[in-house]
Amino acid sequence: MSILDTHREALSLIARRSRSRKLIARSGHDFASNDYLGLANAPELRDAVTAALDRGVAIGAGGSRLLRGNDPEHEALEAEAAAYFGTEAALFFSTGFAANSAIFSTLPAGRDLIVHDELIHASAHEGMRLGRAATVAAAHGDVQAFADAIRDWRAAGNKGRVWIAVESLYSMDGDTAPLTELTALADREEAFLIIDEAHATGVFGPDGRGLAHALEGRENVVTLRTCGKALGCEGALVCCPRVLADVLVNKARGFIFSTAPSPLAAAAVRASLGLLRAQPERRERLARLIAFAGARLGATDTQIIPVIIGEDARTMEIAGALQHSGFDVRGIRPPTVPAGTSRLRISLTLNVDEATVSQLADRMDELIR
């Protein structure tokens, strides 16, 4: 009997359910990454990083932001991001997961309620688990379900603040949230609205400012903008009123007790924001690719295309065959998606062209038939 047997059995059970995960080296045509604008390996960003190193920007922060880790590059990025997205303040985190965990565990109080879309990111769930507020899931994209949850909570005598939490563009389904209706609901209920713009930032809105761009600057709106997807870098920006940013600095344990993000990464994100404004043709090319893929694959109106297979093992079999054919498409299974909805998640980026999309569509037709 080994002390590791419990863990071996847990892994064996995962494998028997065709849900085992393993690391796979990148190869083939990119239909898996979130590098939507093809910036991750862009020469402009390489040049920006080289220039930052030449002017003495440090690779490591050396400590938390509240100690000696607060670098001028962090502050410059936050000032530029706040101006770019039209908000009072921006706070730079090392990852989107860390940022979401901080938002949900810190800002809602113990007397409050978080009503979240049932398909919201795992990082939001982690933050809610760490926090003290009551939580309830609302049916995906159903504004009335959000309203009903708030009404029932109020009817039970609760007096706290409500926080409505959604993604503007859902990472596994490729659909968008009804932000106009949710904003109206938040206003009626004097509630906060938390919008995860991870997959919309850089792709949609004027200058890539996202689907929630028109809502920035409101005192009841908090947005999360990750830097490791369309921006091609790493980290995340929480955009919000100054007072909420100050609360995070003072109370968010993930911010206070973590080594600050790399100052070099902050410099890279600054350069990427400049490219969003200077190179609108990247968004235009991606929009054309999305339209083309829609005609070939019956896709959503966004860069994320879910192809529902249903059964876990079959999903992974098709994904493996596509990878063997030179198309890097990954299978997504529960618990990342609901049971019975295992799928191929096709991600459109500027790392492929229309001809490659056509080839993928033809091969998928053969395999699914």
Descriptive account of the structure:
The protein has 369 residues and is α/β, with parallel strands linked by helices. Helix content is 43%, strand content 15%. α3 (72-85) packs parallel to α10, α4 packs parallel to α5 and α11 (280-297) packs parallel to α13 (354-368). The longest helix is centred in the last third of the chain and has 18 residues, at 280-297.
Question: Care to give the gist of this entry?
Answer:
With 369 residues, the chain is an alpha/beta fold.
Helices, by number, come to: 13
Task: Assign an overall shape.
Answer: globular
CATH level 4 superfamily of the largest domain: Type I PLP-dependent aspartate aminotransferase-like (Major domain)
CATH topology of the largest domain: Aspartate Aminotransferase, domain 2
Report the order of strands and helices.
HEHHEHEHEHEHEEEHHHHEHEEEH
Fraction of residues in helices? Answer: 40-55%
In terms of structural class, how would the helical and strand content be classed?
alpha/beta
Distance between the termini: 47 Å
Output mean pLDDT: 97
The strand line-up of the biggest sheet is: 2-8-7-6-5-3-4
Count structural domains. Answer: 2
Quaternary state of this entry equals single chain
Strand segment tally: 12
Radius of gyration: 21 Å
